[in-house]
Amino acid sequence: MSRYQMKIIIPINDSAYNAEMTQLAQAAAPPDVRVEVANITQGNSSIESRWDRMVNAPYVVELALAAEAEGCHGILVSDFDYCGVEAAREVVSVPVIGGFRPNVFTAMSLGQRFSIITVLASVVDMQREHVRSFGIEPNFASIIPVNLPVHELTQRDKVIQRVYECSIKAIDEDGADTIVLGCTGFNYIAGPVATKLRQRYGVNVPVMDPNVAAINYLYLLMHTGQSQSRLSYHVPPNFSVQH
C-alpha cells in the first residue's frame, strides 16, 4: 500500500510524454510512493524560452492547486527551469519543486564544479540566471547546448552522442567534474553518457538524470515532512478571495 502520493506535472500542452514519464517515475520512486502524471492542457507545447515559461506557468499553478486538493503529498514540476514553481509554492502547502535545485545541489554534493548540458541557445542565459539567483557561481563551470529542440530528444542515440561530446568539452575545457542535464526531456540519457565517460576517463563522472534526481529529492522532503518556508513563500493576501 502506498504511503505517499506524488504528482508530476508536465508543464507543456502535450500529453506525448506522459506514458514515458509514468514509466520512468514508477521505476525511480521508492515503493511506498504512488505517482500520478498530468500535463497542462493550455499554453505552449514546449518550454524553450522565458516566454514559454511565462505563458505556461498559470496552468501549472492550477494543476498544483488541484493536486493538493486531491490529497497529494508532494508536487514535481518536470521542468529544469521550474515553470510555475515559485508561484505554486505560495499557494499550496505541500512541497513543490522543479528540476534545477535537486539536480545542481546533488551535483555539488558529488563534485566541485558542474556543467549544464542543455537543449538550445535560447535557454542558456535563462539557466545562467538560475546559477546567479542561487549564489552557486563558484561551483559552476559552464553551460553548453546540444542544439536540439525538446521534441527531438526522443532520438536517443543522437542525443546520447551529442551530450557525450558536450560533456567532454565541459570536462576538458571548462574543468567540470560533474554533469547536469539541463532539460527534463533528457530521459534515459544520463546512464549511457556516464558509461561512455567512465570508459574515456577511467573513473566515475557523475551525470545527473534530471527527473530521477528530482523524484528522489521530493521523496526526501515528503518523507521528512518538509515543505517550502512561509517566511519566504507567503500566501498572497488576496488569494483566499480569489479562490
Written account of the structure:
It is a single chain. The chain has 243 residues and is α/β, with parallel strands linked by helices. The chain has two domains: 4-99 and 213-242, Rossmann fold (3-Layer(aba) Sandwich); 100-210, Rossmann fold, CATH 3.40.50.12500. 44% of the residues lie in helices and 15% in strands. The protein has helices at 18-28, 50-69, 85-91, 100-110, 124-133, 156-174, 190-201, 210-223, 239-242; strands at residues 4-10, 33-39, 74-77, 96-97, 114-118, 140-145, 178-181, 207-208. The longest helix has 20 residues, at 50-69. The radius of gyration is 17 Å and the shape is globular.
Helix and strand topology:
Elements: E1 4-10, H1 18-28, E2 33-39, H2 50-69, E3 74-77, H3 85-91, E4 96-97, H4 100-110, E5 114-118, H5 124-133, E6 140-145, H6 156-174, E7 178-181, H7 190-201, E8 207-208, H8 210-223, H9 239-242
Parallel strand pairs: 1-2, 1-3, 3-4, 5-6, 5-7, 7-8
Helix pairs in contact: 2-3, 4-8, 6-7
Q: What is the N-to-C succession of helices and strands?
A: EHEHEHEHEHEHEHEHH
* CATH-level-2 architecture of the largest domain: 3-Layer(aba) Sandwich
Looking at the structure, the CATH topology of the largest domain is Rossmann fold
Helix content estimate = 40-55%
- Percent in strands: 15-25%
> What characterizes the major β-sheet?
4 strands, parallel
How many DSSP-defined strands?
8
| CATH classification class of the largest domain | Alpha Beta
With helices defined by DSSP (H or I, 4 residues minimum), what is the helix count? 9
Low-confidence stretches: none
Output mean pLDDT.
Answer: 96
Radius of gyration: 17 Å
**Broad shape:** globular
Distance between the amino and carboxyl termini: 33 Å
Give me the secondary-structure category: alpha/beta
The spatial strand order of the largest sheet comes to: 2-1-3-4
